[in-house]
Amino acid sequence: MNKFVEPARELTVTEETEVLVAGGGIAGVAAAMAAARNGAKVTLIEREFLLGGLATLGLIAIYLPLDDGLGNQVIHGIGEELFRLSIRHGCEGPYPKAWLENGSAEERKKMRFITQFNPHIFALDMEKTLKELGVTVLYGTLITSVVKDGNSIAGVVIENKSGRSVITCKTVVDCTGDADVAFQAGAETALHEGGNGIASWYYYYTEGKVKLKMFGLADVPPSQTPAAEKRGDNPYGNVTVTSLTQTRFSGVDGAELSRAVQEAHAKMFDDILANREKQADYAPVTVSTIPLVRMSRRIAGEYTMDESENRKGFEDSIGLTGDWRKPGPCFELPFRTLYSSKVPNLICAGRNISVTDSLWDVTRVIPPCAVTGQAAGTAAVMTDDFSKLDVKELQSVLEKANVKLHI
Questions:
Q1: Within this chain, do residues 174 and 124 fall inside the same structural domain, yes or no?
Q2: Is 6 within a domain?
């Protein structure tokens, strides 16, 4: 028997909301914050039981630069707000004194606006922030499908400990990282051709200190690490993040994802045991609890931006980002990369916006995720058809929220 027909059943509408945010990573948190501050009733759906996604559950606890590497801050708004929130109770890595304490232009050129945060404190502080804004957070909840009304999404089907039900909504912000809602809603999507390498970062204790082990490829491709070290602008300082194996995985296949995670766990276990033989008090403290997927599936939006468009101006820019990998580049992010007119009331943010593979590595990290999240959450309050939104009106609201739009 190759197929089974699931019996039809009635589903109860358990909640009605205005803006539904799918995914509680950095983009989702930024989107929920922006939507709530603009007066909307907001529900955030998260499959895990902690906010922050890769930044916290994945232990990728590096808040990459808010600047262009030339001494100019390009990300403000919620992107900067979350940066400051992440180290409000102290940082674990470089403290960007020149940026946080009014350093000179020359001092800012010497050190990028970057830090390392404690992922657990950051996650708890983000949850506190959303609660204070009145955002409803549903943990342990999967979005299994969507309910359509014509081309638009009328609601999402969820499953959690309470069973299967529906949440109706006016707009949806897809911050799943894998364009899951866009895919379910029938929007055109694209897969990253290069796939992902395996990794499993972990914290360990030894000699009276707790340290972060960047175990395996998660951010710096092996081909770029030596060059970055030679230039002296590797955002990880002296740390080399290398590939563990030649295994590559797409990030959107359940069985494949499980195999990749188990391979990463096995390599990490071997590494822990090897270090314990050298250092008796070496002990793991916590490990990545979600797959370290970098680039998987994205929406194919109204415009697909490329890395060649460095410092190109866009009339519909909703924010800026630098390039965390090297100083110099700066990108205006067009609103058209966030949505597809095929599903009018769906907008994307984070690592699943519409960019080519070459630019994907730039836009997937924390700072641009916060930028696109803020823009998407703001827009989601203003319309239920993003192709018809007056972008000038959106830009005006973003500028009032301290977002820099143009280079």
A1: yes
A2: no
